[in-house]
Amino acid sequence: MHVYYPEMGEQPDRAKLFQRASHICRFTFVDWPPDRDAEARAVFKRLRLRPVIDRVDLISGGHKFRAQMTSLAWDRIRAEGDVSAEALL
Fold first, then answer.
1. Do 30 and 21 touch, CB atoms closer than 8 A?
2. Distance, CA of 42 to CA of 15 (rounded, Å)
3. I want to staple 12 with a disulfide (CB 3.0 to 4.6 A). Which of 6, 63, 73, 84 is the partner?
């Protein structure tokens, strides 16, 4: 898992499939770009996960996809190693 600090000017690793958006109580939200949507859904299917998936429109134009999942599902995604997570100082 790649961890980046936006306050230090760091950016997420775009080579990673998922970017962790936020964590609220027992739920984690992850994002991925629309051009890698089929790949992300294949990972969910392979791991037998059924997250709630939404399309998020961006202010700058375009969109991305966001999945809401439980902390246990997040642990399984994180174990895959294809995640870039934001950490605040």
1. yes
2. 17
3. 84
Tens-place pLDDT, residues 30-86: 889 889 999 999 999 999 999 989 888 887 778 889 999 998 898 898 888 888 888
Say if residue 20 is exposed, middle or buried (CB neighbours under 10 Å; 0-12, 13-18, 19+): buried
pTM for the model stands at: 0.79
Which residues, 6+ apart, have CB-to-CB distance to 11 below 8 Å?
4
89 to each of 4, 21, 22, how far by Cα in Å?
10, 16, 15
